[in-house]
Amino acid sequence: MNTVRSIKSLRLVLFALAMFGAPACTARDAEWSATITNSPLVTAGLRGSAAIVDPDANRVLMLPVEGDLTLAPMSIPMGPGFAAARVTSDATRLVTLSLGDVPRRKSTDEGPSLLVMDGSINPKALETYPLSDPMSGLEVDPQSEFAVVYPSASDTETFVQNPNELVLIDLSKPASATNPVPISLRSFGGRPRAFTFTPDLELPGGKRRLLVASTDRDVALVDLSSPEKPEMTVKLTSGADILQPSGTAVSDGEPGIDDDARIAIRTANDPNVIVLDLLATPAGKESPHSFLPVPNINYVGGVPTDMAFVKTDGGPRLAALVPSKKSLTLLEPVTGTTSSVDLGAAFERITIVTDIVGAGTNGGDIALVWSTSTPNVAFVSLGVTIGKPYKSVERVELEEPVSSVIDVPAPNQHLKILAMPSGKNFVVLDLMSRTASPIPASKTGTRVVVSGDGLRAWMVASGEYPVAQLDLSTLHPKNLFLNNAVQDAYEVERRDGGRAVIAIHPAGTVGATVLDAVHPTLENSIEYVGLLLGEFQ
């Protein structure tokens, strides 16, 4: 039988009395009686705890799990006016953005801020970065080093706004007079819409990372090692037709060479790819930078939908998918010459899987391509660039097109979970054996969350009662039917070193069911109700 534990039972009684008009017999802060209005509930899964954002009380409720599956909730205050939340790629920190009190009319009103929280088994606030103006756009670096705050189209309450102003925060350093750093991009009429953080690049003047900010008509490069220096803006549009950036690819080139790093930019509805060579600043040219982007326009045979820099036996190439031609164009970035790989079907997305499956016979990369419009995935061996411009194309037929590809961490990194547009069908793709195992679900809108240890996946349909554990070694599903509808389910480390899964129930004042992640059973699960009513300080 499930153990039902009411959090702060006295508060639940008081809350029920208040709801039915009974006179309150004790004073209590207003936020504990507030109606839960944020829908859907904002939650997140971290390495050692699940998080529930409670904007009515200006806090985040962190939920670490003890060895006996009991929760040890911790309430972390955040600024008023919650705008966005992101989890760092290593799942160790939660970053929340708050607008503050808008408008600020009193000296005691809070300003906007960025809060970084530790998401381990002992969660806590790590750092708060004050911001000068409220902005609701937030992006976090995939390497978890930086965050960017920027104005979004929904920011309408600010009296005067610079839509090309960014705020860069170094998450590895405390708040100071130089962190965060405001950056105003040189604009040709656009506003930032997408951001790419590059890996370390060997550039003239030394190694560094760049931030590529794409607007609807140009791109700007920010040197993350010296963000106080002016950005380098590359204007893509010179005539009446606006070229809108729609994707980037980055290459560091050959190791030990500092003049072959490149950034490729594809644009919407245009058959050309713009390649920026990052070359040394010419002698005599005044510039605060040791390098400058030199653009080259290259025709790839049709409008590309995705691209990646790849290795072939003939050297580096830019591989651009052109669905209208059912082909993959290989562009030699120095000369601009191209060759075409006939894929036999239209594919829109590409990812390089060489690190997982190993290089091809001739040392070339292996690419996985998939389609959002036709039921296909394919493995492309990019091993020959002279004569027949590929070694092999191995297609795998599916029941549906692919809407997204979910990575699996080690030890099952050779697996990819393919989600289908129906929201009911999934496929576990084995990159080594080139097999596709269907995993259908009966509920529309089913989502998959992979465990941090790479051994399991959890499947949940928002608003439904069942959850399922999928063992990624055997592909055996274990279904459980819970007492309350589930919005999200996250697997976390327990404080005793074990694993637990927390299923979040959004109804009322939010509940949760906690189960052992390795051997989940209803008999030893613990069900919580009224989580947002407890003062977990």
Please explain how this structure is put together:
By secondary structure, the chain is mainly beta. The protein has 2 helices and 43 strands. About 5% of the residues lie in helices and about 45% in strands. The strands form 11 sheets. It has a 5-stranded mixed sheet with strand order 1-43-42-41-40, with no helix packed on it. A 4-stranded antiparallel sheet has the order 2-3-4-5, with no helix packed on it.
Question: Can you describe this structure in just a few lines?
Answer:
The protein is mainly beta. Strands 1-43-42-41-40 form a 5-stranded mixed β-sheet, with no helix packed on it. Strands 2-3-4-5 form a 4-stranded antiparallel β-sheet, with no helix packed on it.
Described by the principal axes of the CA atoms, the overall outline is globular
Strand content: 35-45%
From the N-terminal CA to the C-terminal CA, the straight-line distance is 30 Å
Structural category is mainly beta
